[in-house]
């Protein structure tokens, strides 16, 4: 028996529209990610802006003061350790150079390997420079977007809610819940960086490793880079330990490994569970899947993306009428 399958023109047009939309999304994925990062920053900063407005500050002044206060806090934290950081970082760079020289003289490292790496590095300098410039442009774009999104937050939310004709209150409530979760995630991420940096600093001081401050700061900063961040931050510390003795280098490597294990399996899941309500297993799976799909940026944004999916699913399951009914 033969079966005849009829495909209407509307079905064909719908498929074409979906494929076109997916293709456009792929082409502007970097822009979407920038908007998503800006939305996360808005979610984290808006409570402070709202509090100032409660104190009768105009919106523009409130946003400006929050940005100024954030910048002041960052500069103040850097200033507290500015002098020792610069001194120790300079000494650290010199010491790493001496370490490589000693390893070469002792024939512990193949000179050809070093020469090949230096050649590759020289070839990659231009690429690194372009990447840095592109990242700076992206950073400025995110800051500007965040500033204007904070200024017109209610108008933008109203515009988005207007697409859901019969469910505008639910749409606003959905956006507010999403903002609360994403803001909590960012604050949790900052807490993770501080905690990891502190643990590494305490461990290095106990082991008697020089340059503990810049090494700890590197560990804290690299905490935002999932998977490979802890590995990269461990390399300078292990090399410094190697200048004293191989045994000390092993102890330093064990310290970084222990901190990384505690961070991956205890601190990150528990902090993120408290911050955004995600199950620890889901946090680990989200980071793994995000890293496979989009690399470092995917792993970094995996948890907030999982938060968005969680809030959407909760809204749909709790509202049989559907949030997206128009």
Summarize the entry for a quick read.
Helices cover 85% and strands 0% of the residues. The protein has 326 residues and is mainly alpha-helical.
Descriptive account of the structure:
By secondary structure, the protein is mostly helical. It has one domain. The protein contains twelve helices and no strands. It has helices at about 10-25, 30-55, 60-80, 80-105, 110-150, 155-160, 170-205, 210-220, 230-245, 245-275, 280-300, 300-320. It is globular. The two termini are about 40 Å apart. About 25% of the residues are buried. The model has no long low-confidence stretch (mean pLDDT about 75).
N- and C-termini, Cα separation: 42 Å
Would you count the extended β strands for me? 0
**Spatial shape:** globular
Structural class: mainly alpha
Number of domains: 1
Spatial extent as radius of gyration? 25 Å
Estimate what percentage of residues fall within beta strands: under 5%
